TrEMBL record:
Listed GO MF terms: oxidoreductase activity; quinone binding
Ranges that cross the membrane: 61-81, 104-123, 132-151, 157-178, 207-231, 251-275, 287-308, 314-336, 393-414, 426-446, 453-471, 477-495
CDD domains in the record: VKOR_2
Protein name: Vitamin K epoxide reductase family protein
Organism: Gillisia hiemivivida
Keywords, ordered alphabetically: Disulfide bond, Membrane, Oxidoreductase, Quinone, Redox-active center, Transmembrane, Transmembrane helix
Length: 511
């Protein structure tokens, strides 16, 4: 590709990963181009867009050949690696919905059929303008990633092969070449939301999410490998047999599939979605930002709540489960700003008379021509790591009030142990759950757009101040410290703290 202008969505900065390629290369094709540019906005005819679509397809043609080859790989895998040899059973004698013979057969045919479909639709995608074939390939990749969980892959090689090839297929179908046929409808314009002081879809903002998702994926994959039976034990540096007790508990066995392996799949999708789209995806891909936000925020909160409820339901802590929750928690305040920017854009387009349905799936005209000149380039990380790191957390600040609330929450969680109370006593349950929720609301409130979440800690502080005196299996010292902690949390939850950024229409909700 030729030189890329800075304001072109960051496209081309990762090779041939985006269909909206640089305009300079097309200026040399005057016989094909009829473009009218005005203040950075790009207006192209359908013929112009089709020419660019075909050019981009030529540059990414190798992707679809690789998909065809991976299809043959999947067909050959169960024939090469016998899924009926060296089989394992799930940990803890867990009953599952398939017999061993059915598990072997299901993985065998799933891989072969998936491979055949990849060959067929990969071949079809060798021609441009076949978006449905590309999307089908993407969903085949998702299925290949899910099949080892659903069918309880009987061998580690079947699990490893499926999850690795699944990721590659997803990346090759919609990440490396970009979203299928996006060039036919995408509107160009600025990448800073109206009234915002930074771009929430910049690469540093997304890179920290990608990094956290990968770390969480490593932890979840290890726990999933134990539940699926590929390793004999799960290491816990702090709680002894706690991790084994949690992973083999009735709560963990309540799902028909491994909950840890399901978490691995969730982190996989989060990791991949972090790469998807350009630096204006809050405007050009509202559907993707919405699904990413659902995966990170409500589902992330459910996952965190399940982890912090372990002492109440199981009577044990799991160190790596806690670690996964610690990884997931900051992802919520780090992601919410992009969701808010997307919501603002949709509301503004609705006021202009656009269909919300159309804007949701195809984006909309830009309301601003302002491009991001503030964010440092991600490639400068090696030379200026601190500068890039600071830009990755714009929109998330830690006022001393919230920081102290987090410290108090940690104290509440460990105080039952300090004062010699058993993990399953009512007082311990109160402090474990109360302290964990204090931390959750304080960290979520570190997102400037969700600073109002600190008010939930007023209610929690009130409960912590009163409830210890209504519990029998406790002691006076713990009661006093818990009540005092609750009162301090209440006092700390009134001040908003300094707000460093601006958020357009959302500023009025930052209270």
């Amino acid at each position: 590709m030729t030189d890329q202008p800075h304001n072109m969505e960051g496209m081309g900065s990762r090779g041939v990963t985006r269909p909206m390629m640089d305009m300079k290369s097309h200026e040399h094709k005057k016989d094909h181009e009829h473009m009218d540019t005005d203040m950075g906005d790009m207006k192209m005819s359908a013929d112009d867009r089709m020419i660019m679509l075909k050019d981009h397809h030529k540059q990414t043609l190798w992707v679809y050949w690789v998909i065809v080859l991976l299809g043959f790989w999947m067909i050959a895998s169960p024939l090469t690696f016998d899924y009926g040899k060296n089989v394992v059973e799930p940990a803890g004698g867990r009953p599952i919905w398939l017999s061993l013979g059915d598990r072997i057969a299901a993985m065998y045919w799933s891989d072969i059929i998936s491979g055949l479909l990849l060959v067929v639709f990969g071949w079809r995608s060798l021609k441009p303008n076949r978006p449905y074939s590309v999307w089908i390939i993407c969903f085949i990749g998702i299925w290949i990633s899910m099949a080892p969980l659903i069918f309880w892959a009987p061998t580690a090689i079947a699990y490893y092969n499926g999850t690795l090839v699944g990721v590659l297929i997803i990346a090759l179908s919609i990440l490396i070449p970009g979203m299928p046929n996006m060039i036919t409808f995408m509107k160009m314009g600025g990448n800073v939301p109206t009234g915002w002081s930074y771009n929430p879809s910049s690469w540093p903002q997304r890179a920290i999410m990608i990094g956290l998702a990968f770390i969480g994926w490593l932890a979840s994959r290890y726990l999933g490998a134990f539940q699926l039976g590929y390793i004999d034990t799960a290491w816990d540096p702090f709680f002894g047999e706690g991790t084994l007790n949690v992973l083999n508990s009735d709560m963990s066995h309540s799902l028909p599939i491994s909950d840890a392996a399901l978490g691995t799949l969730a982190y996989t999708i989060e990791f991949l979605m972090g790469f998807m789209g350009g630096t204006s995806r809050w405007r050009t891909m509202p559907w993707m930002v919405t699904f990413f936000g659902i995966l990170v925020i409500p589902l992330g909160l459910v996952s965190i709540f399940l982890v912090i409820s372990q002492p109440l339901t199981v009577g044990a802590w799991c160190a790596l489960c806690l670690f996964s929750a610690i990884i997931m928690l900051p992802m919520i305040p780090l992601q919410i700003d992009e969701v808010i920017a997307m919501w603002q854009h949709m509301m503004q387009r609705k006021q202009k008379g656009d269909s919300l349905w159309t804007v949701f799936w195809k984006g909309g005209e830009a309301l601003s021509t302002e491009n991001d000149e503030r964010t440092p380039e991600l490639v400068t990380f090696v030379d200026k790591p601190w500068k890039v790191l600071k830009s990755s957390i714009w929109g998330m600040t830690a006022p001393w009030q919230l920081t102290v609330s987090v410290v108090i929450g940690l104290w509440l969680m460990i105080s039952p142990k300090v004062f010699g109370l058993g993990i399953q006593t009512s007082a311990a349950n109160l402090n474990h759950l109360g302290g964990a929720l204090v931390i959750v609301f304080a960290v979520v409130a570190m997102a400037e757009v969700l600073r109002s979440f600190r008010y939930f800690n007023i209610l929690l502080g009130l409960a912590l101040a009163v409830l210890p005196w209504l519990i029998e299996d406790t002691n006076m010292t713990l009661n006093l410290t818990t009540s005092l902690a609750g009162l301090i949390i209440i006092a700390l939850s009134f001040a908003k703290g300094k707000i460093k950024e601006t958020y357009g229409l959302w500023d009025k909700y930052v209270v």
